[in-house]
Design a protein that fits this description.
The chain is mainly alpha-helical. The protein has 34 helices and no strands. The longest helix has 35 residues. Functions as a component of the nuclear pore complex (NPC).
């Protein structure tokens, strides 16, 4: 999808206003949907899964989608906080209720919000398929091993001999390869579920894979609750309430056990990471965290668990949990984090260079500033970061819409000051900087001329700037931008000589790519008074002594005339061909074709209609013939003699001339044969309306063979498209015309027998 299409879709969301078609969605939600769509398109491109550019673009859209999601959640949370402040409950009522409040009610809000957000930032993953039969292959191996004769001295090697969950650790042996591979995938899936706040899915996966003991070990993290002590409107739908107490009063003890399991290096990596995540331990979670979002989640998860522990341990409680002192303190090399600011400070000072580098990327710095409600320090935006600029603009619009107070000067542009600031730069940088600014301006021509005049006002070399801006834009591949680049050097008649050379250069490039329409658009974009009388006068005097610069201008003007004539001729031919396609049915007495295919043609009914068409096509045929013959084939189109090319220059001019001469030769080889073929089509196809044109089509052989214009050399020239040249194809057209003439003469002699039939091999 092009950048223009993306900008259009974002603009449509802004223009439609908040909730136009999606009344329940904010602009941030709609922007998130757009970016998620772009991400999914790239992720779904299975043909280019290893393309690093595609991966980078997909990563970009995922990060932007996460940022829009973050902005939406924070703005919603801000509004909710404002609503709560407006409806505060009396503190004494809260204190009275808190005595009977369970752990579940205390933390359900913060844990629910955390769980709903974690899945949004994680990369997609496919969980392992459920498999019935615990350690199927290991059990089979054990049975086979026991069936063997022990007297033969067989041993179990490195495989376990028992299938309880602790056997691999206790015996220091391994499972069957198939079971070991499945266990690794299962542990990875369990961790990914927990990472996304989907503990229920993790528990179900354990049960469905015949490992209920693992589900039981994870359920220890559920908060204790007693429905008899809970206020119904605080915990949702009463029908969904459990009737008995649930959860774990001794959750702190369970967390200590999980931390010990996570610290044990004999356990598998994702087994350790799983219990570390459940207990809010950083060390092992960071070992498997690959992305910036994963690492932020690890820190925030640890922070939330720390806060939850502090909130659960209260004096006013009906149930006293067991002491955890007997387990001792589980060491961690990461100190507990107390707030979001500390989280991001830890990220910036992380021991991994990759993490620190990710922290400094533009979007992650923006996310940090948004989360901390702070200002994002000034950062450099590369020239190709158009997407980042688009995001910042739309983010500013959205934040203003939801009530954030943004300073006006932070979002307004002052292009009229660019010339002033550029004038303060060193002289050697002024032209380049302002030219780069101008060639990116896409406003209408009067606005761009005004910016050019501001350069003159602030004493910048605006002629050099106009030339440089034009040159920079010509390096691009977009045709419209290249055409508009010429407008910089047509802003003043004093630049017209320079502009003429640039027009010819760009027109040659367009024509070499077969883009005659683009070349025609280029010529049509020039000012009405662009062609100077001085150019006309000098081009009329073939051998007049002139200065080198004047001779070069005269040669460029002749080239301008030749290329313009080609564009006009081809455009006129297109109109003529369209008119020929509208030809009515030919009357029987005007062509033998009606007799040959009479069964296929409808009987001529309205000869007046055909005459009307003929009266229109005859003058257009004559004009098309004249343009091709007089403006192209008869003038030595783009040959060095016809352009009065100067051969005396040396040095850099000599290199430029060689490039120009090469391009001119390529243009002749490309277009001269094409004109010959089209001229033959004009003459041959119009033979019904203009009978004498049939003979003229045969006379093209003489035109091509003339030594003066050397057209036959272009017809015989080999190219990539025509390795053997096009002379043989031209001779085929001549045979076609000759045969048609013989047939026509034969038909005119109705009393004579047929002298010539259709030649089979012709």
């Amino acid at each position: 999808m092009s950048a223009a299409d993306i900008a259009t879709e974002f603009a449509s969301v802004v223009e439609s206003g908040p909730g136009s078609d999606n009344r329940d969605e904010s602009q941030a939600q709609q922007f998130k949907k757009l970016t998620q769509k772009y991400f999914e398109v790239l992720e779904g491109d299975t043909d280019n899964t290893e393309d690093p550019l595609r991966k980078g673009r997909a990563r970009y859209w995922k990060v932007e989608s996460n940022t829009w999601d973050l902005m939406e959640r924070l703005s919603t949370a801000q509004q909710s906080a404002a609503d709560q402040d407006a409806n505060m409950v009396d503190d004494t009522m809260v204190a009275a209720e808190s005595i009977a409040t369970t752990d579940f009610v205390r933390v359900q809000d913060v844990m629910g919000d955390s769980s709903s957000a974690t899945a949004e930032t994680a990369v997609p993953f496919e969980p392992v398929e459920t498999r019935r039969g615990y350690l199927f292959y290991t059990r089979k191996n054990i049975r086979n091993q026991r069936a063997e004769d022990s007297s033969a001295g067989s041993t179990s090697g490195g495989a376990v001999t028992e299938i309880d969950p602790d056997a691999p650790t206790r015996q220091k042996r391994t499972l069957a390869a198939e079971d070991g591979e499945y266990e690794d995938s299962l542990l990875r899936s369990l961790y990914e579920f927990v990472r996304r706040g989907r503990l229920d899915d993790a528990l179900n996966l354990c049960v469905e894979s015949d490992e209920p003991w693992r589900a039981a070990s994870m359920r220890g993290g559920l908060f204790w609750r007693d429905p008899r002590l809970e206020v119904e409107d605080k915990i949702g739908d009463g029908d969904m309430q459990p009737r008995d107490t649930a959860g774990n009063v001794n959750r702190a003890l369970w967390k200590q056990t999980c931390a010990a399991l996570a610290q044990d290096e004999d356990n598998k990596l994702y087994d350790r990471a799983l219990y570390a995540a459940l207990s809010g331990r950083l060390d092992e979670v960071l070992l498997v965290s690959k992305s910036w979002e994963d690492i932020v989640w690890a820190y925030v998860n640890a922070m939330i668990e720390e806060r939850v522990d502090k909130d659960v341990v209260r004096e006013n409680s009906l149930y006293i949990p067991a002491e955890t002192m007997s387990l001792g303190h589980i060491q961690s090399k990461y100190p507990p984090v107390d707030g979001l600011k500390q989280v991001f400070e830890a990220m910036r000072s992380h021991e991994s260079d990759a993490v620190k580098k990710e922290t400094e990327t533009p979007f992650h710095r923006l996310q940090t500033a948004i989360i901390l409600d702070g200002n994002c320090v000034r950062m450099h935006c590369p020239e190709d970061e158009g997407d980042l600029l688009r995001f910042v603009v739309h983010a500013a619009l959205y934040m203003r819409q939801v009530g954030f107070d943004l300073p006006s000067d932070a979002v307004e542009t002052h292009r009229e000051l660019v010339a002033l600031y550029t004038s303060q730069l060193p002289a050697e940088k002024q032209t380049e900087v302002y030219a780069e600014f101008l060639q990116k301006v896409n406003d209408p021509l009067p606005v761009r001329f005004q910016l050019l005049q501001l350069a003159e006002k602030h004493r910048l070399d605006w002629h050099a700037i106009a030339k440089r801006a034009s040159y920079l834009a010509l390096l691009q591949h977009d045709e419209l931008e290249q055409v508009r680049a010429i407008e910089w050097v047509t802003s003043d008649p004093r630049l017209y000589d320079y502009a003429l050379a640039q027009v010819c250069k760009l027109a040659r490039r367009f024509m070499l790519r077969g883009r005659t329409n683009a070349a025609a658009r280029l010529f049509n974009s020039l000012p009405s008074g662009f062609v100077q009388q001085e150019w006309i006068d000098k081009s009329d005097v073939m051998d007049s002594p002139t200065k080198p610069s004047q001779a070069e201008t005269a040669s460029c003007f002749l080239e301008y005339i030749h290329i313009l004539a080609m564009c006009d001729s081809l455009a006129f031919y297109s109109g003529w061909a369209e008119l020929m396609c509208q030809q009515p049915m030919v009357p029987k007495d005007r062509s033998r074709a009606a007799a040959h295919v009479q069964a296929q043609w409808i009987e001529w009914r309205d000869e007046a209609q055909w005459i009307e068409w003929r009266d229109e096509v005859v003058p257009k045929t004559a004009e098309a013939t004249r343009m091709f013959q007089d403006k192209i084939l008869g003038v030595g189109w783009l040959t060095e003699p016809s352009l009065q090319v100067d051969v005396s220059a040396t040095g850099r001019q000599d290199v430029q001339r060689q490039v120009r001469a090469t391009e001119l030769a390529l243009l002749r080889a490309l277009y001269v044969p094409e004109v010959v073929f089209r001229l033959h089509a004009v003459l041959y196809d119009s033979r019904v309306a203009v009978p004498e044109n049939l003979e003229r089509s045969l006379e093209l052989a003489q035109v091509v063979a003339e030594e003066g214009e050397g057209i036959y050399r272009e017809m015989a020239r080999a190219s990539a498209a025509y390795p053997k040249g096009r002379l043989a194809a031209f001779m085929g057209l001549m045979r076609k015309s000759a045969f048609e003439m013989l047939q026509s003469k034969q038909e005119s002699q109705e009393a004579m027998p047929v002298l010539l039939g259709e030649p089979a091999g012709l």
